[in-house]
Write a structure and sequence with these properties.
By secondary structure, the chain is of the alpha/beta class. 41% of the residues lie in helices and 16% in strands.
């Protein structure tokens, strides 16, 4: 005997009208209730084909493109970071009743990625823009499908972006260091070209100027963005035995880890000789010795906002003006910064 709406409603403890709204793809039902009704309907074998049941209640399929063009930033070291983005995207897809697919590209040209997108029956795409150039973004953004770019931000490109607020976050870091008595703060930047790193460089220089500090060219260190690369590059600087500032801001946690290894190898103590701050709040940052002060990025929120933006783009069409969202970060204060107001200062060299 076929399962009825009444039986599904009784098991789900909702009205038959609510069940009908869900199965007929109508609004007005919360995400949690919608998912519960669909699961019960599936378990009770409602309909002749379970896949058809779920497909009939979805608003379409969207795809997340995880792109690593050079792999110096999007790599195994940041898998946890990307996983949080995906969790937020998944949450946003459920809330908007989308089926979410995930595709990964390594070293792919925009043409290869565009071929993957246009050859599928998709409602829209979210693209990880971390390692994409402006030219890549322009090529992908003109495919004719709704597109949102995640983890990058460009003022002069007419596409939707959702990213962390790099400039504001870096100001918070520099302000925290000055509050702890640091007037000489060095920048450990990445030599790898990504727009987030460029924005953090800009944010650092703007913060230094706004807070009345002086930045010496000799206190800017350019290193690779991988752990081993940052370690090797920082070691070269330290072997020159040039004087260090009292604090170093590293443009992400991976760079900070590599620099800390190099500093310790050259017998610098952290934070007694030099304070170190990172950016990203990766899991290792809270358990390393000493625990790393760093900027926490709301990765799940950014992912969910990107999916909400895509839903709006799909519903509103490409005539809508671009929307560019920047989400602020939260400084996580740990033990890698010395308060120079409490005692002697200056690194040992």
């Amino acid at each position: 005997m076929a399962t009825t709406l009444k039986e599904i409603a009784e098991k789900a403890q909702v009205s038959q009208a609510t069940v009908s709204l869900v199965l007929n793809r109508k609004p007005g039902v919360s995400t949690a209730t919608r998912e519960r009704i669909l699961r019960i309907a599936q378990d009770m074998d409602y309909g002749s084909n379970r896949k058809e049941l779920f497909a009939s209640t979805m608003n379409g399929t969207v795809r997340f493109l995880k792109v690593a063009t050079h792999g110096h930033t999007v790599n195994r070291d940041h898998d946890v970071f990307i996983a949080d983005y995906i969790e937020g995207l998944t949450r946003g897809a459920r809330a908007n009743n989308f089926n979410l697919e995930i595709s990964t590209f390594h070293g792919s040209s925009p043409l290869e990625m565009i071929g993957n997108i246009t050859g599928s029956n998709l409602s829209g795409v979210v693209v990880l823009g971390t390692e994409l150039s402006p030219e890549d973004i322009q090529a992908i953004g003109r495919i004719g499908l709704p597109v949102v770019f995640l983890d990058t931000f460009h003022d002069f490109l007419d596409f939707d972006f959702v990213d962390m607020n790099n400039v504001d976050s870096v100001y918070k870091i520099v302000a925290h260091l000055t509050e702890n008595g640091h007037s000489e703060i060095g920048l450990v930047r990445s030599g790898v070209k990504t727009h987030n790193f460029e924005l953090r460089d800009e944010g650092f220089h703007r913060a230094v100027g706004a807070l009345g500090l002086t930045l010496k060219e000799s206190q800017i260190y350019s290193v690779d963005s991988t752990y081993n690369g940052a370690y090797q590059d920082m070691l070269v600087y330290l072997k020159r035995r040039t004087a260090l500032p009292t604090a170093l801001f590293c443009t992400n946690d991976i760079i900070a880890y590599g620099c800390i290894k190099a500093l310790r190898e050259r017998e610098f103590r952290i934070p007694e000789d030099v304070s170190v701050v990172g950016f990203d709040d990766l899991p290792l940052s809270s358990v390393m010795d000493p625990p790393l002060t760093t900027m926490q990025v709301s990765k799940r929120q950014i992912g969910a906002l990107a999916m909400d933006r895509l839903a709006g783009r799909i519903a509103g069409g490409n005539k809508m003006p671009p929307v560019k969202i920047q989400v602020g970060g939260e400084l996580v204060i740990r033990s890698s910064v010395k308060n120079l107001n409490e005692g002697d200062n200056g690194p040992t060299v």
